[in-house]
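step 3/5: co-fold with flavin-adenine dinucleotide
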Amino acid sequence: MATENRIRSVAIIGAGAAGAAAAAAFKAEDYFEQIRVFERRGTAGGTWIYDPDPHVPSIRPGGLPADLDKPLEIPTTLPATTSPNQQERFVQTPIYDTLTTNVPAIAMSFSDSPFPYGPFVPHHVPRQYIENYFSKQRTDDFLSLNTTVEDVSLLSSPRSKGPQRWKLTLRKYDPSKLADVWWEEKFDAVILANGHYSIPWIPEVTGLAAYMEKFPGRVIHSKYYRSSRHFANKKAVIIGNSASGHDITTGLVSTAQLPVYQSRRSLGRWDGDEPLSGVQWKPIIKEFKLDGTIVFDDGTVFKVNGRPLWDYESNKLIKSYWHTFLQDFPRLAIVGIPRVLTFRSFEYQAVALARLFSGRNALSLPSLREQERWEKERDEKSKREHLKFHDIRWETGETMNWLDGFFQIAGLGRLTGEGRIPPAMTKDLIWAIENIKKYPEPGNQNNGKKAEADEWVVVNRSTKDLLHFI
Ligand SMILES: Cc1cc2nc3c(=O)[nH]c(=O)nc-3n(C[C@H](O)[C@H](O)[C@H](O)COP(=O)(O)OP(=O)(O)OC[C@H]3O[C@@H](n4cnc5c(N)ncnc54)[C@H](O)[C@@H]3O)c2cc1C
Ligand SMILES: NC(=O)c1ccc[n+]([C@@H]2O[C@H](COP(=O)([O-])OP(=O)(O)OC[C@H]3O[C@@H](n4cnc5c(N)ncnc54)[C@H](OP(=O)(O)O)[C@@H]3O)[C@@H](O)[C@H]2O)c1
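step 4/5: write tokens
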């Protein structure tokens, strides 16, 4: 190579296993004047760095790396200092707690440096190994850590006859300035050793995007799986049966609800004639539905155990009855949702539920149809009267009617004394509520002395319900 065409400087992007091997090989030539390794993480190790608590970004099904990980805007003049980047860059790795290597050490390690033991090692071993390899090869001083290569541009035109040169745009967070520092460096040659497992791929499946939006966190990519403990007692479908799918399925068998479903598109390396005990094979998924169900290609349906309880848009319980019961979950109930008298109403709800769940209730809940009708009518009324679905008014008599509903359901205790009787709404209590405005303001209680009539506050009648402040 003519001297003027000689490659003198080389930039290596990435300090994973590939970057470690490249740095060692280039150094061994004893030929290059400058070798630099740019690594955006704080240490070498690449994929094998373990991030125990990853940030889980939202990932659009069908989104390709170029859409999901858009280039940052480069300052017009460099060097420059900008506020620290906030954009998701997918720098964290997919390593989970139980991951071990799946290639025997003799075949996975570099030829001049065996793994400390084998044949399969936990994930921290290759991480340490890669870091040590930089020191062992004395290539550690080539490393520029916490430095992201934001752009690689050809300096000359691809058609020009002269040797090509490259300009790298680099960004590094400077903790002393609490800012990102940007600069450029030029090299004769560049080695891309940046890996390819940083940006997760989620395929497009009918309904998946809307499903992920409606049920945030319910669908996660294996990149963000960390431990089977996070899925204890949950119903789970694992999509895929390659290395990650196999490992995660095997892990979940010991913690999740059985069977663990595994959706397979083709035969995997680990698949025998039968699934592992505790696993049920399923074909690919053809649709994700907004009621939470998942439809497989063979028409079978995966029903999720559960659904959101609260509709934040209309600010109400979903499928409720009497502000307490859930139409589709007869063994689940909520005490304390409506805006109404507090403790005393809780007591009514609690007594009615206790009697109902012990089978000692005087009155059954109405039929599902009746419950649905109640919800629909209340919904319409709330909209018509611009009221909140779960606000129960005192002055219209609604509170008494509502409490009476529990009174009817609960009935009396047993002759032998078990069970509580719904408390009476005594005249004194009703008087206290109806004359609430005559009490001294809370916090102004005259040192605990009984308020005298001349201390009573006379307030104009407002259009708001007497108990609206609860
Ligand atoms: C979960 C999992 C398990 C695996 N298990 C095995 C196994 O058991 N055996 C096996 O042989 N292989 C396994 N692999 C494959 C693994 O990817 C390789 O072993 C190897 O680690 C890849 O090394 P790499 O250097 O090419 O990429 P990486 O390890 O990904 O390293 C690339 C480096 O480049 C850095 N980088 C990227 N972009 C930039 C940028 N713009 N600027 C600066 N730095 C940048 C990254 O931060 C990263 O450190 C596994 C992969 C995964 C995902
Ligand atoms: N050391 C370890 O133990 C370990 C653990 C995890 C990962 N890894 C490594 O990490 C890398 C990535 O592995 P990976 O398993 O995460 O990914 P992968 O090998 O790309 O496998 C993706 C899997 O998803 C399946 N799939 C894709 N779309 C599907 C759909 N719509 N329905 C059902 N299945 C679908 C694929 O099926 P098809 O086969 O039909 O395409 C395949 O089984 C590999 O290098 C692997 O060796 C290693």
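step 5/5: annotate
The pocket of NAP (ligand 2) is lined by residues 99, 101-102, 203, 222, 239-245, 247, 263, 265-266, 268, 284 (CB under 6 Å).
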